[in-house]
Design brief:
There is one protein chain. The protein is 31% helix and 18% strand.
Length: 188
Amino acid sequence: MNVYWVRHTRVDVRPGTCYGRLDVPLATTFEADVESILAHVPSGGLVFSSPLTRCQELAAVLGAGYEVDERLVEYDFGEWEGRPWAEIEGKAAEAWFNDFVHVAPPGGESFEQLVGRVQSFWDEVLLERAGKGGDVIVVTHVGVIRAALALATGMPLVGVFAFDVHYGSVTEIGFLGTHVQVRGVNKV
């Protein structure tokens, strides 16, 4: 079984804005961006999506039907959502910037908590299907894809931030029983 982790396409948001769970609109390049994605995912696979609109719009194009899973939502930046990164400062910001893996933004979640959500999806959905065949498409966000790469590779959580996961790209992870193999990152 192959799992195709698809990052949503480009968004229409002011550069430098902190957004994770904030439901921002897609850029006008959506249709062109989708064409590139279609070349790298199978047709007819089981499709799961983050609940955010930017993912559901893409999931609707990739599968005749798709299932929304809350565990696939992006990183929760809490009180910082929608604010310019340049304005995020103070003790809470300093603590988070020094250890975002374990420290949560005010009202948000740490990367470690996000990985826990993805681990739950991985165990309950992907490992259960691994022996049954068929491909899975997961339409989601950069944080979730980095978490999946951490689970696939066993890398330290801070290490997966070395992966620059592009908008509209596909990361392919293969399952051979319980053996996992990263087969490609940033396919576009």
